[in-house]
């Protein structure tokens, strides 16, 4: 929906102002990662809607959320040029994230659903030989828009929904993925995010800083990351479990001034890559994995809470937060309805 930034700003101006007075500026965790630095800037128009990023042995992989055929772009990290295109015959609905397993398979999360009307969501899996598989999944509680994919060490796939009020659902398949029929998803937890004052994104900070737009797991599977339009949250995962990691206290890494930041990925040396739509620069945060406090990684024990929070301090009292989020939510619902009607890319419901 990058074409409608002006519409979004107008419709959300009033709703966003109800929430901006109480941003949490504190950063969970005690590390101090350096500011992002530009690695290169894509110039290929095929990357104008870049929504997912993954790191290979030599090159990067990127995927956009448009098109009528699965296309995966292999990039030269030195200049962001497209050196190879991988494709599959499937017609995706809305690919929103990308992950890579140690065996080289690339997982495309065809899980976007701005209109909340999809019967199923999908994963497109491309192996190093170029062969592709399509797996469908179904939510237990109705459609959701999800833009973050996490590939756990234990072999599970996790989807994190995009909630305008910062309450993201974390879902995983209840059984093995199946190419012949949809597999049911189960909600394993809720991830709660609080607003920050990091600038950037297409929405007012009250919303843009809490909606989850991408995810990644470090190559060593010891750090799990989710991002919003403005920040990344790095969760220590000493046992490799994604749900356990997301119940821990994260390190917040500001990713300021990205027009529509939707992609993150880890490099083998621990750097965190960050990418945005609109042909913005791909940036890196050096040694972001190392900035996650070691004591937290080694000693922190996950809580039993089903609704972990990314901040130890509330930006408002619980009652104020409910009232203000309700007011802001009404504005955002109106926005989503209008954007849904304006989208020019017709997709068939799956």
Could you tell me the mean pLDDT?
82
Order of helices and strands: HEEEEEEEEEEEEEHEEEHEEEEHHH
* β-sheet strand percentage: 25-35%
| Poorly predicted sequence stretches spanning 5 or more consecutive residues | 1-30, 295-350
Strand order of the largest sheet: 6-7-8-9-13-12-11-10
Number of helical elements = 6
Which word captures the global form?
A: globular
- Proportion in helices: 10-25%
Give a quick account of the main beta sheet: strands, pairing sense, barrel closure: 8 strands, mixed
Based on the model shown, name its key terms.
disordered N terminus; alpha+beta; disordered C terminus
Describe this structure in words.
This protein has 350 residues and is an alpha+beta fold. The protein contains six helices and 20 strands. The chain has helices at 5-17, 205-208, 242-246, 288-291, 294-299, 318-342; strands spanning 37-40, 50-55, 60-64, 70-75, 82-88, 97-100, 106-110, 121-126, 132-138, 146-151, 157-161, 167-173, 183-192, 214-217, 223-227, 231-236, 251-254, 261-266, 272-276, 282-285. An eight-stranded mixed sheet has the order 6-7-8-9-13-12-11-10. Strands 1-20-19-18 form a four-stranded antiparallel sheet, with no helix packed on it. It has a four-stranded antiparallel sheet with strand order 2-3-4-5, with no helix packed on it. Strand 4 (70-75) and strand 5 (82-88) form a beta hairpin. Helix 1 runs antiparallel to helix 6 (318-342). It starts with a helix and ends in an 8-residue tail after the last helix.
């Amino acid at each position: 929906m990058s074409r409608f930034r002006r519409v979004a700003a107008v419709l959300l101006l009033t709703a966003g102002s109800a929430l901006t007075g109480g941003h949490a500026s504190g950063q969970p965790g005690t590390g101090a990662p350096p500011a992002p630095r530009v690695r290169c800037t894509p110039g290929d128009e095929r990357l104008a809607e870049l929504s997912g990023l993954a790191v290979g042995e030599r090159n990067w992989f990127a995927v956009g959320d448009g098109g009528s055929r699965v296309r995966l772009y292999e990039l030269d990290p030195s200049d962001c040029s497209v050196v190879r295109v991988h494709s599959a015959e499937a017609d995706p609905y809305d690919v929103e994230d990308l992950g890579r397993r140690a065996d080289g398979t690339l997982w495309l999360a065809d899980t976007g659903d701005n209109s909340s009307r999809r019967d199923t969501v999908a994963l497109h899996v491309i192996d190093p030989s170029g062969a592709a598989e399509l797996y469908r999944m179904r939510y237990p509680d109705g459609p959701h828009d999800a833009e973050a994919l996490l590939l756990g060490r234990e072999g599970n796939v996790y989807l994190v929904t995009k909630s305008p009020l910062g309450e993201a659902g974390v879902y995983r398949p209840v059984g093995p993925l199946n190419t012949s029929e949809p597999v049911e998803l189960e909600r394993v937890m809720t991830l709660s995010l609080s607003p920050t004052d990091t600038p950037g994104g297409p929405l007012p900070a009250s919303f843009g800083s809490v909606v989850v737009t991408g995810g990644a797991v470090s190559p060593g599977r010891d750090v799990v990351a989710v991002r919003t339009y403005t920040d990344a949250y790095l969760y220590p995962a000493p046992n490799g479990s994604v749900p356990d990691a997301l119940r821990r206290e994260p390190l917040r890494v500001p990713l300021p001034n990205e027009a529509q930041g939707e992609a993150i990925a880890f490099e083998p040396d621990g750097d965190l890559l960050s990418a945005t739509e609109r042909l913005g620069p791909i940036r890196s945060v050096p040694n972001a994995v190392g900035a996650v406090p070691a004591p937290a990684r080694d000693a922190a024990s996950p809580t039993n809470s089903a609704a972990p929070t990314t901040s130890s301090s509330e930006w408002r009292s619980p009652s104020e937060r409910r009232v203000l989020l309700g007011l802001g939510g009404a504005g955002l619902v109106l926005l989503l309805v209008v954007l849904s009607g304006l989208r020019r890319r017709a997709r068939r419901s799956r």
